[in-house]
Specification:
By secondary structure, the protein is of the alpha/beta class. It is built from 8 helices and 6 strands.
Length: 240
């Protein structure tokens, strides 16, 4: 309940503080620039046919990507040996000496349900995009659903959702933003981190990452009244 209340209050603040951008604006921005290849919730394949993304469309460079082991390896830990690297055949892996290991920005978002719908998640990710466009540094942006990466969440000290965190795999250090989830607060958090003033920095080795269920951009299907459990055949043993 605390996490759900934090989600609601954070997004109310997001809608008010994002310089005139409403939740709807942020969701539409994310959909147009990051998820145009996914059919809208109102789209019916039976009635409308197969969904097709606009011609020549591709995700914007500021779009956060879902956090998977492969995405983390590619974007956040390029200094580590690829998974298919064999030291016996390929020798000791040595990254280029001038390789820059970027700091990764991870947005942890709530699980979809009655209080968290797809459009609100898109607005959350749209706010991350808005913050990314204020940040001059070449950071990498990812997102993860609450509970999908328990080891990383525990190491960072994540406790409410949505929340923004930083992690640098080479320095083995991370920090979590402790303010309302707004584009302005995120931009300020990233700026403070860039000059070494991030609060609550934690040091830890890269945790084991899990393979999450890929989000299709839609709401989850909630139980309907007709799907409720029937108790006609339940036998109760009562001692008097």
């Amino acid at each position: 309940m605390v996490a759900l209340r934090s989600t609601w209050l954070g997004l109310v603040a997001l809608a008010v503080a994002a310089r005139g951008s409403t939740e709807s604006d942020l969701a539409e921005s994310y959909r147009d620039e990051c998820a145009a290849d996914i059919a809208p919730a109102s789209w019916s394949v039976e009635e409308d046919g197969e969904w097709e993304a606009p011609a020549n469309w591709k995700p914007h460079k500021d779009c956060p990507v879902q956090l998977t082991p492969a995405a983390f390896k590619e974007r956040c830990a390029p200094h580590e040996a690829p998974e298919d690297w064999d030291e016996e055949e390929d020798g000791v892996f040595e990254p280029p000496p001038d390789l820059a290991v970027p700091t990764c920005v991870v947005a942890f978002v709530p699980v979809l349900g009655y209080d968290e719908v797809a459009r609100r998640r898109m607005a959350t990710l749209g706010a991350v995009m808005a913050a990314a466009r204020k940040e001059p540094r070449p950071l990498e942006y990812l997102w993860s659903v609450e509970g999908d990466q328990p080891a990383l969440e525990a190491a960072l000290g994540v406790g409410t959702y949505p929340v923004l965190a930083l992690y640098n795999a080479k320095r083995e250090a991370g920090a979590v933003m402790r303010h309302a989830f707004t584009a302005d607060n995120m931009a300020s958090f990233l700026t403070r981190a860039s000059i070494g003033r991030a609060e609550g920095v934690r040091s830890f080795s890269p945790p084991e990452l899990q393979e999450p269920e890929v989000w299709d951009g839609r709401d989850i299907e909630m139980p309907r009244c007709g799907d409720e459990m029937k108790y006609d055949d339940v036998e109760l043993e009562v001692d008097f």
